[in-house]
Amino acid sequence: MASITTLKINSYFFMGLLLLIFGLFVTVIGIILQLPIVVMAVIFALIIIIYIAVSSSIVKLTTGTRYLKKDEIPWLEAKVQELTRKAEVPMPKLGIVDDPTPNAFVFGLTQSGSTLTVHRGLLEQLNDEEIEAVLGHEIGHIKNRDCMYMTFLAAIPLIAYVGMRLLFMVRYGGGKRDGRALAIILAIGLISAIVYFLTNLLIKRLSRIREYFADAYSAHITKNPHALASALTKITYGLSLAPPKDKAKNAARSFYIGDVQNAHTDMTRILSNKSRYDLDGDGVIDENELQLAMMDDANRSMWDRWGGIFRTHPPTFKRILALKDLEKDLEKGEVRSDNIYEKVEF
Q1: What's the predicted TM-score (pTM) here?
Q2: Residues 150, 203: contact at Cβ < 8 Å?
Q3: Which residues of 219-233 are buried (b: 16+ CB within 10 A; e: fewer)?
Q4: Least buried of 54, 58, 144, 189, by fewest C-beta within 10 Å?
Q5: Could you say which DSSP state residue 63 is in?
Q6: Is 287 tagged catalytic?
Q7: Over 50: is that where the pLDDT of 301 sits?
Q8: Which residues contact 201 (CB under 8 A, 6 or more apart)?
């Protein structure tokens, strides 16, 4: 049975594992460069501190977030205030992105310093209950301090990625290098590539788990898991229409409630079997048919299931199934504040 304690233990486990890998990475790089470990630790610590200090500004800039003025969207402001009171968390700053795709995210290093941002498309394409459910999901992230954890951990693969770029310098760089310098660059590049791959997998695993927890929290605080399931369906479909290589979205993929690349993957598979899911034969897959298609997606091939380890978010059909289980428990009166996360998968 999952619980908030399980989330904390899981977070601490992954943080410990990531820090262990990072510590080994720093040690090995120090040995290769023949620098004292203390010096290497100080250098990398400074890099992480600088990254964390500017991380919120980077997210704001790359996503195109604009802070809302007071009373600019009264309904949204009132709804967030209502939900944060229920969640007993500070009121976040509110932001908006002038993007036609339906999406939302939070960022910030503390609960009191968080920003909750919605896309214009979310407000235009979802109804009030669905928007409220999405807001509940994002407030769940604030409640569980997900942004703080994910921002800190994301610094590790970022540093490894910079080291990995040395391999491209060797391949495409001009000029001659002596054998020792070339060996050092290759060694650092290869080790960095391994660390980048491993830490990315761990962070994506943690990200998927925290999405389940945020979904469950939304269901608890709004008492309307059906609205979130419906919202996730619309979000997945809406995101599938966006360019899959949109750099603004990829820059903060794990922060969003829905991921563009995942949505493209899910919808491509579903639409390739359009005749199977178009139950009323009208040539269009409506919301109900799309939900059924996503749940039917549970019978995917073994390769597709293993491919899920590279995703920042769980497959939409899994999130919908978990929410349907929560809906049944809510109807029976079996959901309490101490068992919100019972249906969360690992």
Answers
A1: 0.85
A2: yes
A3: bbbbebbbbbbbbbb
A4: 54
A5: H
A6: no
A7: no
A8: 309, 310
Q: Which tens digit of pLDDT belongs to each residue from 220-273?
A: 899 999 999 989 988 988 887 776 555 445 556 778 888 877 777 777 767 666
- Alpha carbon 344 to its chain centroid, in Å, reads 16
The one-letter amino acid at 280: D
Q: Which of 272, 315, 275 is nearest to 295 (CA)?
A: 315
Tens-digit pLDDT profile for residues 104-115: 999 998 999 999
Three-class SS of residue 93? Answer: strand
- Between CA 36 and CA 33 the distance in angstroms is 9
Annotated active-site residue in 132, 138, 211, 327: 138
The amino acid that residue 67 corresponds to is: Y
Q: What secondary structure does DSSP assign to 148-165, as a single string? A: HHHHHHHHHHHHHHHHHH
Residue 128 vs residues 123, 221, 222: alpha-carbon distances, Å: 8, 15, 12
Distance CA(279)–CA(288), nearest Å, equals 10
**pLDDT number for residue 40:** 86
Give the three-state DSSP class for 92: coil
133 phi/psi in degrees, rounded to 5: -65, -40
Closest CA to 151 of 115, 111, 208, 109: 109
**β-pair type (115-119, 104-107):** antiparallel
Q: In this structure, are residues 148 and 107 in contact, taking their beta carbons and an 8 Å threshold? A: no
Residues paired with residue 107 on neighbouring β-strands, in sequence order: 115
Q: Tokens representing 307?
A: 């491919």
Helix residue ranges, H only, 64-119: 74-87
The per-type count for the chain, helices as H runs and strands as E runs, is: 14, 4
Q: Residue 179 corresponds to which tokens in the numbers above?
A: 């054998």
Report the sign of the C-alpha dihedral through residues 152, 116, 4, 306, in that order.
Answer: negative
